[in-house]
């Protein structure tokens, strides 16, 4: 495979690829994002392959057949999209495949049972762009995911990939930075720092060596935007980095990807290799004289390595501890050289901003937060998955119109945004716009985009305990407030949730929060107070119930709840008694059963197996 | 006994730079189910990095283990979405069923039970991964049955 | 060396650019407590957070660790405000509960009005329970001595210094620099006759030809001779009799 050494050659290559494809080629795109994979997407893809063979359909010649990255509509996977009409089939099983091939690919019928049906109006919608989940989205960072096979560089080139790189290499580097500045792009990893400002600062430092790094250490539990991007469109990141490196004068880049994303690691490695073979990485890229290459660095299971100075130590082959000294990474970052570190989503936006212009990007979003943001909408919501919307959308609209509302019709209680650095926002504030600044004003932050929906069965004290527990395990241990303060907070929260809460506990928590916020060495510590302070602020009554009344209103904290069987609802099927690990449920067949609360360990198995909803937790 | 040949083969896959240290340790972990002392010593010699620094990395990064892990690794996702959907109950059911605490290995070295922070499959919460097999919407009453096929 | 002036507690102090606030303050008779900083160890500081002070610059204020915050033009420092004391008190209370038997921590805590911490005291036998995980020992071993026999192990509350597997290290030279710099005397070094025991290893000590006192491990002499070319005979006499 010969390298492509000029923009004209790239254009000819792309033209040849386009010519090889039939116009309006019918195609099957099988979503192989992690969620769909876990639901058996590969078996569905294999079923299509087998069906094509048996029906003598030549894959990608007669009818296209691709596996793609995450479509975002994870709750309804495995997902299959049929081109050119963009028909979305939900929950596809291998058994459905012969029918799909016969009726929808060879024929042009839509299979009713597999498409979206509005839960209220019962209207069926085949074209996924019209489905509420997708209708309100503006997919910029996610533009290629679900359309291309991420392991095929030609797919990316067909979408216009690397054409922007060719264009950029003919621009003045300062002009590139000017477009990024005009776009208003702010760091998408949570910090929200103006990207152009960061690039300018690094460029201004006199140095023979500069580095660009992609932070793919997405550690916020509940967030998988970056994972889906690294896995589903690695080239967007790579192209963005090459453009950025050219703009600031860097010849070496790193992509740091967490080890818990094996598919992302794999697809990034395949992509980098392919990009090198095509000549877009290496010396004299596209005949411009610019040289740049990328190394992939794997994380080792440390949330703190998402912090930029800790990440850089980890890349250098050291323990991932943040730097105590007050030095900016743009001045002295990796190996003490000027370094631009940006998040996956930030890099993925760069090519399209240069292609369509900063003003175009800035036409989306709000005054202070331009553009769009990818969110992972998870928790007690119907349509869990990945969405990309213009900044400024309200929390309520995101959850109700795109998210399809709270699961099982329960009451929407709160959202947690921003991961362990963010806070809980109560339902009554959910008309707030989601952008960099509005949520910070109320004690949370938008963060990297994790949005966790909580219902009436979520205990907010338990949520605070969960996040502090998480951080205790992830603290690097270097500074006193985080290493020792967090675990003391956890002790207090455990006491509260186990019925040993004291009147002074909330005050102690607030004091420790101050020590962390003012005294901790890095962002992990300085933002750790948010989940605690926001739940105290908005759900103080729950803390009081646990401490004063020794009750858990949401029915979660084991020490404060009792499992019992509603005699009226119980049919005496004996299933719970059989499954109970403590053997503490007694009763005769067809007669109401009883739980011995002394022996009960509240494991939840009885509630889980009961088909009659007869187990009560209070 | 850890074969020096295997250790060297792994080290030679990578550039001789400190940047490769973590990746090499990860590969040791995959190959031997833990990071052996001999591996770290050899790495220290070849890379000219002090053993104490490599050992520190072994204790800092949670994907690495200095003691042998089980043949099968059970990872219970304890990310926020999974937590809200009952990950703790799954974890406790497994602890009871396997008779081990989290982050430990059964006596017969068959299973290691671990917690992991968010696999990115939040739509199927709660999620459990055994080796490379993902199980979604896991229920406490069913999880021990899932393990039966892993001998 | 660029000189500049920085205001500390209302007083104008002379400083050299990039000097740390703590050094400038101390040079000017303004005391700031600190545990993990040692001016001889460039990589030290920033860990214990005891030396936090208010830094006012360009319209904003934040707390910074004075041991590694560089002085710049226009910087004003306040070491004695309510906020400084509140956070310092919080930090010291946490340290009191972590290392309950340390006299130096007890004294600093008392200065902030803390006698007993509200938290359950950590209890245990090994050096983790005397240690504030400031890493000075590991830093001096790497930076000044140059052998890196010990490193900081683990993450979080159990972070502690040690040799790999806590086994005797064959690169340790028994010099005791780690013991010397440790702010809380957490590292044990025992001498019996001409044997010094440190980090689970016994070191034979060389004796002074004048006073017969065993004063330096043979391994340390080996290391110095190897790395500096100094004549071995130099170590025949102890410092008092050279």
Topology:
The complex is a heterotrimer of chains A (618), B (151) and C (242).
Chain A: H1 7-20, E1 27-31, H2 34-38, H3 41-54, E2 64-68, E3 80-83, E4 87-89, H4 97-106, E5 116-117, E6 124-125, H5 132-135, H6 153-158, H7 163-168, H8 173-183, H9 195-204, E7 211-216, H10 225-232, H11 234-248, E8 252-257, H12 262-278, E9 293-298, H13 308-315, E10 339-343, H14 344-356, H15 358-362, E11 372-379, E12 385-390, H16 395-402, E13 412-417, E14 423-426, H17 438-441, E15 450-455, H18 460-474, H19 480-497, H20 505-519, H21 523-526, H22 529-538, H23 540-547, E16 563-565, H24 575-579, E17 585-586, E18 594-595, H25 605-609, E19 615-617
Parallel strand pairs in A: 1-2, 7-8, 7-10, 8-9, 11-15
Antiparallel strand pairs in A: 1-3, 3-4, 5-6, 11-12, 13-14, 13-15, 16-19, 17-18
Chain B: H1 4-11, H2 21-32, H3 37-47, H4 51-60, E1 72-77, H5 80-84, H6 87-98, E2 104-105, E3 111-116, E4 128-130, E5 133-135, H7 143-147
Parallel strand pairs in B: 1-3
Antiparallel strand pairs in B: 1-4, 2-3, 4-5
Helix pairs in contact in B: 1-3
Chain C: E1 3-8, E2 11-16, H1 21-27, E3 52-57, E4 60-65, E5 76-78, H2 82-98, H3 103-111, H4 136-145, E6 151-153, E7 160-162, H5 177-181, E8 189-192, E9 195-198, E10 201-207, E11 214-217, H6 218-228
Helix pairs in contact in C: 2-3
Task: Report on the architecture of this protein.
The complex is a heterotrimer of chains A (618), B (151) and C (242). With 618 residues, chain A is α/β, with parallel strands linked by helices. Chain A is built from 25 helices and 19 strands. In chain A, the strands form six sheets. A five-stranded mixed beta sheet of chain A has the order 12-11-15-13-14. In chain A, strands 2-1-3-4 form a four-stranded mixed beta sheet, covered by helices on one side. The longest helix of chain A is centred in the last third of the chain and has 18 residues, at 480-497. Chain A is globular, with a radius of gyration of 26 Å. The termini of chain A are far apart. Chain B is an alpha+beta fold and 151 residues long. Chain B has two domains: 4-60, no CATH class; 72-147, Glutaredoxin, CATH 3.40.30. Helices cover 42% and strands 13% of the residues of chain B. Chain B contains seven helices and five strands. Chain B has helices at residues 4-11, 21-32, 37-47, 51-60, 80-84, 87-98, 143-147; strands at residues 72-77, 104-105, 111-116, 128-130, 133-135. Chain B has a five-stranded mixed beta sheet with strand order 2-3-1-4-5, covered by helices on one side. In chain B, strand 2 and strand 3 (111-116) form a beta hairpin. Chain B is elongated. The two termini of chain B are 24 Å apart. The mean pLDDT of chain B is 93. Chain C is of the alpha+beta class. In chain C, 24% of the residues lie in helices and 21% in strands. Chain C has six helices and eleven strands. In chain C, strands 2-1-5-3-4 form a five-stranded mixed beta sheet, sandwiched between helices. In chain C, strand 10 and strand 11 form a beta hairpin.
């Amino acid at each position: 495979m010969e390298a492509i050494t000029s923009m004209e050659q790239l254009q000819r290559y792309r033209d040849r690829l386009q010519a090889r494809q039939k116009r309006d080629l019918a195609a099957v795109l099988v979503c192989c994002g992690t969620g769909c994979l876990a639901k058996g997407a590969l078996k569905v893809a294999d079923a299509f392959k087998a069906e094509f063979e048996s029906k003598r359909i030549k894959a990608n010649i007669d009818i296209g057949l691709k596996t793609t990255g995450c479509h975002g509509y994870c709750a309804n996977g495995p997902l299959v999209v049929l081109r050119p009409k963009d028909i979305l089939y939900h929950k596809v099983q291998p058994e459905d495949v012969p029918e799909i091939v016969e009726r929808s690919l060879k024929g042009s019928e839509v299979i009713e049972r597999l498409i979206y049906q509005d839960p209220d109006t019962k209207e069926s919608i085949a074209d996924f762009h019209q489905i509420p989940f997708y209708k309100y989205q503006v997919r910029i960072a996610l533009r290629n995911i679900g359309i291309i096979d991420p392991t095929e560089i030609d797919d990316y080139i067909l979408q216009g990939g690397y054409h922007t790189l060719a264009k950029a290499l003919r621009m003045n580097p300062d002009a590139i930075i000017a477009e990024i500045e005009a776009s208003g792009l702010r760091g998408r990893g949570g910090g929200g720092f103006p990207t152009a400002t960061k690039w300018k600062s690094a460029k201004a430092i006199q140095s023979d060596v500069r580095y660009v790094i992609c932070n793919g250490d997405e550690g916020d539990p509940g967030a998988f935007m970056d994972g889906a991007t690294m896995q589903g469109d690695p080239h967007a990141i790579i192209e963005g980095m090459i453009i950025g490196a050219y703009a600031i004068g860097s010849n070496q880049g790193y992509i740091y990807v967490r080890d818990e994303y094996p598919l992302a690691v794999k697809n990034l490695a395949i992509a980098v290799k392919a990009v090198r073979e095509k000549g877009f990485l290496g010396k004299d890229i596209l005949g411009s004289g610019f040289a740049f290459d990328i190394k992939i660095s794997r994380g080792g299971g440390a949330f703190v390595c998402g912090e930029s100075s800790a990440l850089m130590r980890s890349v250098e082959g050291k323990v991932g501890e943040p730097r105590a000294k007050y030095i900016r990474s743009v001045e002295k970052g990796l190996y003490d050289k000027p370094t631009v570190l940006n998040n996956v989503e930030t890099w993925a936006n760069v090519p399209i901003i240069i292609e369509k212009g900063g003003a175009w990007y800035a036409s989306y979003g709000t005054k202070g937060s331009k553009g769009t943001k990818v969110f992972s909408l998870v928790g007690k919501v119907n349509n869990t998955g990945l969405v990309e919307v213009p900044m400024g959308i309200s929390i309520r609209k995101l959850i109700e119109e795109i998210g399809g509302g709270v699961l099982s019709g329960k009451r929407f209680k709160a959202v947690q945004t921003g991961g362990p650095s963010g806070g809980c926002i109560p339902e009554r504030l959910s008309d707030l716009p989601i952008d960099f600044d509005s949520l910070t004003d109320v004690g949370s932050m938008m963060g990297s985009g994790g949005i966790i929906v909580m219902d009436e069965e979520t205990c907010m004290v338990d949520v605070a305990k969960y996040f502090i527990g998480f951080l205790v395990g992830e603290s690097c241990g270097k500074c006193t407030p985080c290493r020792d303060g967090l675990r003391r907070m956890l002790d207090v929260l455990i006491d509260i949730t186990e019925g040993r809460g004291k009147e002074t506990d909330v005050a102690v928590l607030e004091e420790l929060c101050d020590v962390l916020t003012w005294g901790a060495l890095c962002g992990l510590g300085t933002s750790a107070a948010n989940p605690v302070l926001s739940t105290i602020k908005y759900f103080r009554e729950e803390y009081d119930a646990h401490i004063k009344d020794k009750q858990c209103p949401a029915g979660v904290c084991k020490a404060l709840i009792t499992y019992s069987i509603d005699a009226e609802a119980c049919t005496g099927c004996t299933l719970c008694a059989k499954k109970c690990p403590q053997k503490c449920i007694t009763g005769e067949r067809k007669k109401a059963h009883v739980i011995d609360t002394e022996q009960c360990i509240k494991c939840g198995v009885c509630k889980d197996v009961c088909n009659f909803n007869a187990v009560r937790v209070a | 006994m850890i074969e020096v040949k295997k250790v060297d083969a792994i080290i030679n896959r990578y550039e001789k730079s400190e940047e490769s240290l973590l990746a090499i340790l990860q590969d040791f972990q995959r190959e031997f189910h833990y990071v052996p002392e001999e591996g770290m010593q050899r790495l220290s010699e070849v890379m000219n990095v002090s053993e104490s620094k490599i050992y520190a990395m072994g204790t800092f990064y949670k994907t690495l283990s200095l003691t042998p892990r089980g043949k099968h690794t059970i990872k219970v996702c304890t990310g926020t979405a999974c937590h809200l959907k009952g990950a703790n109950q799954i974890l406790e059911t497994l602890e009871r069923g396997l008779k081990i605490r989290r982050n430990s290995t059964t006596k017969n070295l068959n299973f290691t039970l671990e917690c992991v922070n968010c696999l990115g499959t939040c739509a199927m919460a709660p999620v459990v991964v055994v080796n490379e097999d993902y199980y979604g919407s896991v229920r406490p009453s069913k999880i021990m049955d899932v393990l039966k096929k892993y001998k | 060396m660029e000189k500049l002036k920085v205001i500390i507690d209302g007083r104008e102090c002379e400083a050299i650019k990039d000097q740390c606030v703590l050094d400038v303050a101390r040079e000017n008779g303004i005391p700031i407590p600190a545990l993990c900083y040692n001016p001889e160890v460039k990589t030290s500081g920033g860990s214990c957070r005891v030396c936090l002070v208010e830094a006012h610059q360009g319209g904003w204020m934040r707390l910074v660790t004075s041991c590694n915050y560089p002085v710049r033009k226009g910087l004003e420092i306040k070491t004695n405000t309510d906020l400084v004391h509140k956070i310092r008190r919080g930090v010291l209370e946490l340290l009191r509960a972590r290392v309950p038997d340390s006299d130096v921590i007890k004294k600093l805590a008392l200065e902030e009005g803390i006698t007993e911490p509200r938290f359950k005291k950590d209890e245990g036998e090994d050096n983790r329970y005397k240690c504030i995980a400031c890493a000075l020992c590991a830093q001096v071993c790497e930076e000044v001595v140059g052998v890196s026999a010990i490193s900081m192990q683990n993450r979080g509350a159990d972070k502690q210094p040690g040799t790999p597997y806590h086994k005797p290290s064959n690169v340790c030279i028994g010099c005791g620099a780690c013991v010397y710099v440790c702010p809380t005397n957490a590292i044990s070094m025992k001498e019996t006759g001409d044997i010094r025991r440190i980090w689970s290893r016994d070191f034979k000590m060389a004796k002074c030809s004048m006073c017969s006192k065993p004063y330096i491990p043979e391994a340390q002499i080996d290391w110095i001779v190897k790395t500096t070319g100094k004549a071995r005979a130099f170590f025949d006499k102890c410092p008092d009799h050279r």
